[in-house]
Amino acid sequence: MKKFLMAALATTVMTAAVQASAQVSPEDQIKFRKAGYSFMSWNMGKIKAQVIDGSVEYNQQQILAAANAIAAIGSSGMGALYGPGTDRDVGSQTTRVKPELFENFPDVAQLSGDFVEAANNLVAQAESGDQAAIRTAFGRLGETCKSCHDKYRKD
Amino acid sequence: MKKFLMAALATTVMTAAVQASAQVSPEDQIKFRKAGYSFMSWNMGKIKAQVIDGSVEYNQQQILAAANAIAAIGSSGMGALYGPGTDRDVGSQTTRVKPELFENFPDVAQLSGDFVEAANNLVAQAESGDQAAIRTAFGRLGETCKSCHDKYRKD
Fold first, then answer.
1. How many domains does chain A have?
2. Is A33 annotated for ligand binding?
C-alpha cells in the first residue's frame, strides 16, 4: 500500500512538473526552487541560533514563524520546479542537483514526504513551546534535509 | 493608538534588524530577502494562472498551499533582513531597494502589516474554496505588494 502511495505521489510530482514546465521556464524553475531552499535555510538558521547554539535569545513566536515558513514552503508543490530541462545549469541559473534525482522520483517523493512530516512536527512542537521537544524536532527535520542532499545534491 | 502600534511595530522591525545583523551578513540578508520575494512571486504566479488567466485548471489545494507559503513567508520576520548596510549592493548581491525604505520604518511596518493581513485573508478565502472570493482576495494582496514596490523599490 505504501509503495502504491509513493508511486502515486511520484506520478503527481511528475504531472505537476510537466504542467509547470508549460508555465515556468526551466531557468525560472531552478531560480524559484533555489529561492525556496535559500529562504528555508535562513529560517533553519534562526531556529538553530535559538535552540541549539543559544547565540540568540529563545523566542517562541519567532521559532513558530520560522517553522511555519519552512513547512509552508515545503508543502507548496516544489516538485513542479523539477521539470524537464532543469537537470543542469540553464542561462544564468546554476544548479547542484544530481541527474539521479530525475531518475528516482518515487524515492524523491518519499524523502520529500519525510521532510514535510518533520516540518509539520516542528510546527506542532513550536506551538507547544517545549524547548526540548523543539530541539528534537529540529534535529529530525535537519536529518530529512540531509537525506536528500546526500543522495541528490552535488557537494 | 494605531500610530503607537505602528511605532512599536517599527521598533520591533528595527530591533530585529539589528539582532539579525549580528547573525547574518548584509550580503546574506539581501540574498535571503530576495529569495523570499522570489518564492512568493512563484506562488502568486500559480494563483494568477488558475483564477485570473485560467491558463491552468483551478485546484483548491494548490491555491491554498500557495497562499499558505505567501502568508508564512510574509509573517516570518523579513524586517530582520533590512539591517544596516543592506541599503545598497553588497558583494555578489544586488538590491533594488530604495534608500528611502530605511528612513521610513513606521510606514514600511504599516505596508508590511497590510500585506500580511491580505495574505491571511487569501488563505481564509482559499480554505472556503469560493473562487470569486479568492479572486478578490488575490487582487487585494497584489495591491499591497504594489504599494510597497511603488514607494520603496527601484524600477
1. 1
2. no
